Amino acid sequence: MKETFDPQLLTEQARGVRRAARQLARQPGSVRDDALQHMAQSLRAHTEAILQANQADLARARHNDLSDAFIDRLRLTPERIEQMAAAIDEVRALADPVGGYDEMWMRPNGLQVARKRIPLGVIGIIYEARPNVTSDAAALCLKSGNGVMLKGGSDAYASNLAVVTAMRQGLRASALPEDACQAIGFVESRAREATTHLLTLSEAIDVIIPRGGKGLIHFVHQHSRIPVIKHDEGVCHLVVDGSADVEVVERVVLNAKTQRPGVCNAAETLLFTRNALGVHVERCLKALARAGVKLHLCETSAAIAESLDIAYTPATDQAYATEFLSLELSVKVVDDLEAAIAHIDRFGSRHSEALLTENYPQTQRFIDAVDSSVVLINASTRFSDGGQLGLGAEIGISTTRMHAYGPMGLKELTTTKFVVLGTGQIRE
Q1: How far apart (Å, rounded) are the C-alpha atoms in residues 184 and 182?
Q2: Is the pLDDT at 2 greater than 70, yes or no?
Q3: Domain annotation for the chain: domains and CATH numbers
Q4: Which of 27, 217, 256, 311 could pair with 380 as two cysteines, CB 3.0-4.6 Å apart?
């Protein structure tokens, strides 16, 4: 039976979050930090209830024959719930992003002008089967003085609701005023129409951040009346130069592809410069094959695979443009670094690219020429993550430039207002 929802009820909830956000923004950082501490404690205290809800979602996902990668993103364990709580603790420990002054200057007429950090307002988060997004987004928004409207995917509905219920109980036990405790909103409907309606509430929501697959991003971009900060896909590249250390290459290549293949910062294409042929290609193909990776190979790398009796599929332009989100990888041997950069320009999604090299000029060229939001040297693409980069947690990874680019942490959830101090000046 098709689930229905009440548009007016959702509208009123979003307006309530906006009212709460105004109160939240007026609280000192110590009160917001106390609320975060209680949220993390409540998540830990409700671990069993959250796991039970997650089991219901997992059973439904298996019944619907969803992919292993999807189920991996959906699955919660005691360890993952502890990681969610620890991420809230990390956010709480960060400096308050609200209220500080970015810069200040004096005008010739004696006016003092400054730019002060303020919250964006209310953030709408629309996401798929990643229950940790629920706690990460709520923590980041609360710390930065923003309200949040959470719309998780229907496949994670029970898990997300259990996480939100736990966090709200934490808020009520904290020093946060009652009026501000409604700053975490959750769309309690699986109906697709609820998402469509949420995207029309421009009087209550200031920005939409979608997190999910290409279909979700396209849907949000097509229907939203609210500004959208998005990333379309994570077609991430790993480039291996012949000068790179052999042990480093094998370790990083395997980590970038196999450590958690179903996430957006996993490598999807491996590019070897031609001077890496005799050093790295054979060794990497063997290691990837042993790890169970399905290989899409160019003609040059395919010839090496055949000599090693390694199974492969011929690579195509479609493969090079694909975000596999699984144990699949495209491989291509290119002439040099410039050819690798050209390949990234053509097939990349401006998410994350890495270069493995011991050649300093190559390093500088890669950093300067690659246009993606995160560029890494001699490190796995899996580090393209707010928590790994010291942001505490991330609310998403933006591959647009308005107003943030790359992993979005606390500062990216604020903007600035002008403060002007005068002594009676008038404009002539």
Answers
A1: 5
A2: no
A3: 7-229+408-420 (3.40.605.10), 236-383 (3.40.309.10)
A4: 256
